[in-house]
Amino acid sequence: MQARLRLTRQQILAFRRRVGALDERMPYATTSLERAACAGLQDSMPRAALLSLHARVAGIGPSTLDDPALAQLWGPRYNTYVVARRDFALFSLGRLPDSEKGRLRAERTAAALHAHLDGRRMTDREAAGALGLGNSIRYAATTGTVEIRWHGARAPIVWSVPAPAIGPAEACRELARRHLHVFGPTTAGGFARWAGASAPSAAAAYASLEGSLVAVRSPLGDEWLLAEDEAEMRAPATASAPAPRRRVAACGGRGRNARSRDRLGARAPAAQRRRVLPPRPRGA
């Protein structure tokens, strides 16, 4: 049996900074936005996703979320997320419940919503009120047919989009691959908590990736890493990223993962924060 690859905390944090584009800002381009949103950017707090993009890409402005390369949806754990438009199916259909009850609830909610919208756009509050759904309107998002736009004030606008061509199992597998790449090393349990997926669904996604995973031993225990990321994980650490961008990696851009068992305390030391950030005004 092959011995597990042993990884240090420093190796893992350096790897996550590199794959998360937090060592150096990328030039503004479609490919840069897609890489920055590789694992989705939580936007439940107004403009949080914009801050996360600013940490990774140069030239980000107030209207960047309107870029056609990006889309918004109710993503992992039904939070508001900004994702690459090409990955819309992964963050929606990839979370379709695997139980018959959950799947039917999502499909029926989506069908009722689409019938009511009838090609129109309206606030989720208006649609949910008319259908008597309340916040359960968000269950429709896992069918991959609901897109939203939230400007950080008032209620999100919702509308219907065509169903993805990809299947739920394939979408879930690719979503698990993204989680492994950006938050690795990790486990099926960590993926389930992050995505809000069931334990069986997460386990099935990991089983389908078995041939492309490497067993590792991290400070948190036995975990998994994508085999294609092993060389990058072993690469020498580069210079530390500026404090504001490192702080985004730890607690502002990837959602609840920062509070999961995958957290490794990546916040920049106080000395680095003082060097980059302006002093706080007295009384603030």
What this model shows, in words?
- The chain is built from twelve helices and nine strands.
- The protein is globular and about 55 Å long.
- Strand 3 and strand 4 (80-84) form a beta hairpin.
- Helices cover 40% and strands 13% of the residues.
- The protein has helices spanning 9-19, 30-36, 48-56, 88-92, 100-117, 124-131, 168-183, 188-195, 199-208, 230-234, 243-251, 270-276; strands at 5-6, 41-42, 70-74, 80-84, 122-123, 146-149, 157-160, 213-218, 221-226.
- The model is unreliable at 243-261 and 271-284 (pLDDT under 50).
- A three-stranded mixed sheet has the order 1-8-9. The chain has a three-stranded antiparallel sheet with strand order 2-4-3.
- It is an alpha+beta fold.
* Alpha-carbon Rg, integer: 19 Å
Mean pLDDT, all residues = 87
* Neighbour order of strands in the largest sheet: 1-8-9
Helix fraction?
Answer: 25-40%
Which percent range describes the beta-strand content? Answer: 5-15%
N-to-C series of helices and strands: EHHEHEEHHEHEEHHHEEHHH
> Which residue ranges are poorly predicted, with pLDDT under 50 across at least 5 consecutive positions?
243-261, 271-284
- What is the approximate shape? globular
Largest sheet: 3 strands, mixed
Helix count, DSSP H or I runs of 4 or more residues: 12
Count the beta strands.
9
Query: Termini distance?
Result: 58 Å
Q: SS-based structural class?
A: alpha+beta
